[in-house]
Amino acid sequence: MGLKNLNLANRIFNNTLALTIASAGQLVGNIILFFYLSRLLQAEGLGIYSTVIAIFHTVILGCAVVNPYIPRELSKDLSQTNRYLIHGGLISAAIALILTIGLDLLVPFLGYLPQTEIGLYLISLAIFPEAMNVVLFTMFISHQKAKFISFTSLVVIFGRILISLLALYLGYGVTSLIIIYAGFSYLSLLLNFIFLRRFILAPRWEFNFPFLTKMVLELKYFAGTTILNMLFSQSEVIVLSLIGGETQVGFYSAALKLVTVWAMLPTSYATAIFPVLSSTYQESRSRAVDLQNRSLKYLMALAFPLAVGICLTASLIIPLFYGPGFEGSIFTLQLLAWYLPLAFCNMILYRMLYVRGEQHIVFRIQFASEIIQVVSAVVLIPIYDWNGAAIALILGNFSYSVLSIFFVARDKSPLPLLQISWRFILASSLMGAYVWICTPVLNLFFLIAGAVVIYLALLLILRAFSNEDRLLFKRLLSFSKDSPPGQPSTVVFDIKE
Questions:
Q1: CB 1 within 8 A of CB 492
Q2: How far is residue 188 from each of residues 9, 24, 61, 121, 192, measured CA to CA in Å?
Q3: 399 near 342, Cβ under 8 Å?
């Protein structure tokens, strides 16, 4: 059965692909920049840049108040696009102004190096365009136009990286990279606005105070969760920078970057599926639950082999990307590899709670897990340095997963995680045995190639995917070649009442 005669599977697939391309470009570009930064400026320079960007990303989370709310509501009635655009923009602009002033007032009290302080003042100029980009992002997602996000992201990230590398080649330091970063945030806003006006709607002024009031009141739990994200996101990095200094942040960030590059997969998929999940839930709770569990299944199929592979090959990966001097990041990467299954799972579960209208539960989960992460960081970093930051991150995400599973399943919604995951855990473990045995004798390329072949073969042997799954994959990859001209393919998720 199709969702309102639309191709549910292709909608999710196409938008996930577009968002993944955008995220991949951004993360690969950042790794390239980290590659050169680590060699030219060593751990201290990398730490200064990482500290500034980590604080900036933490602050701009405060601008994401409307991010989950607008796609959930607008997907129900797209005729309200201009109204949500204008009022969401007003809310985001006000938040951006408050955050910019707040960051600039806070900088002198953080005790960072002079270069780090200058970088924070400069990066604060990018808060406004990033806040506006959040609102435009919700428009594209709600209208299933993620391809424009992909295009803008690729243009901005590759332009930013190329100009940054040129600046490094010409002898400029970390400060120049931060100026370049801020400049390209404004370019991103300009491109997104052009696409909005050309392909969705030309914005017009439409102010309705009762609607704004209603929107602000409904945003209270979303705002609470966002504030928690802002205060505690990357809290382990900030605690590490205050206790251990920028050099230790460099070692930690080197490992973290190689893990978060894979977080683009669940982020892109979950972002694309969110408005579809919301619409589906309005029609049938059981269909939405089935879509939730299928999504978890597909993400776990990726998360476990990635975690095992990264953990066992960390001693080869770190020298390859960062060269000599970053040996201290190897064990950190082995720890952080286990962040992936938790993050992949969490991306779906908290969105399901949003769809069910339980944003107050998401707030409580976020609050509890962030407190655990911050306390763990404060306790463990003085003992284990940057490895303590890695452990704190994992503990925070583990607590988030446990609480999310409890609240998602408590209303008797089927959530058979063990049934969903056991085949992938077993296949990943056997694949890991091959990697562990062959690491001393094979280079990284042949290790990865062999691991992929073994894992896929084990999935076939274990019958990890049903006939419906295989049919779905086959038809998705065919790109609707059997569909009549101008019509979508008939492939949909096998969601039953």
A1: yes
A2: 29, 17, 17, 20, 6
A3: no
Token duo for residue 89:
């923009």
CB atoms within 10 A of CB 92: 25
Name residues whose C-beta falls within 8 Å of residue 218's C-beta, 6 or more positions apart in sequence: 69
DSSP tag of 484: P
Going by C-beta distance under 8 Å and a sequence separation of 6 or more, which residues neighbour residue 190?
none
Q: Cβ neighbours of residue 450 under 8 Å, at least 6 residues apart?
A: 434, 438, 442
Amino acid in the structure at residue 69: Y
Closest CA to 393 of 351, 342, 349: 342
Please tell me the distance from the alpha carbon of residue 288 to that of residue 294, in angstroms, as a whole number: 10
Dihedral sign for Cα 53, 58, 59, 65, please. Answer: positive
Paired strand residues for 3: 6
- The structure tokens 């001097």 sit at 325
**Is the model more confident about 76 or about 167?**
167
- Tell me the pTM: 0.65
Cα–Cα distances in angstroms (integers) from residue 440 to residues 258, 318, 322, in the given order: 22, 16, 20
Q: How many CB atoms lie within 10 A of CB 276?
A: 22
CA–CA gap between residue 9 and residue 301 (Å, rounded)? 18
Question: Given a cut of 80, is residue 220 above it in pLDDT?
Answer: no
Confidence of residue 257 (pLDDT cuts 50, 70, 90): confident
How far apart CA 121 and CA 142 sit, in angstroms, is: 34
Token pair of 178, please? 């931060």
Res. 65 pLDDT band, cuts 50 70 90: confident
- What lies within 8 Å, CB to CB, of 154 at 6+ separation is 21, 22, 25
**Can you read off the two tokens belonging to residue 348?**
């779906």
The burial class, CB within 10 Å (0-12 / 13-18 / 19+), for 23 is buried
Q: What is the pLDDT of residues 463-497, one digit of tens each?
A: 888 777 766 566 545 533 443 333 333 333 333 32
Mean pLDDT over 254-258 rounds to: 86
DSSP of 411-424, one letter per residue?
TS----HHHHHHHH
Asked if residue 280 lies in contact with residue 291, where contact means CB atoms within 8 angstroms, the answer is yes
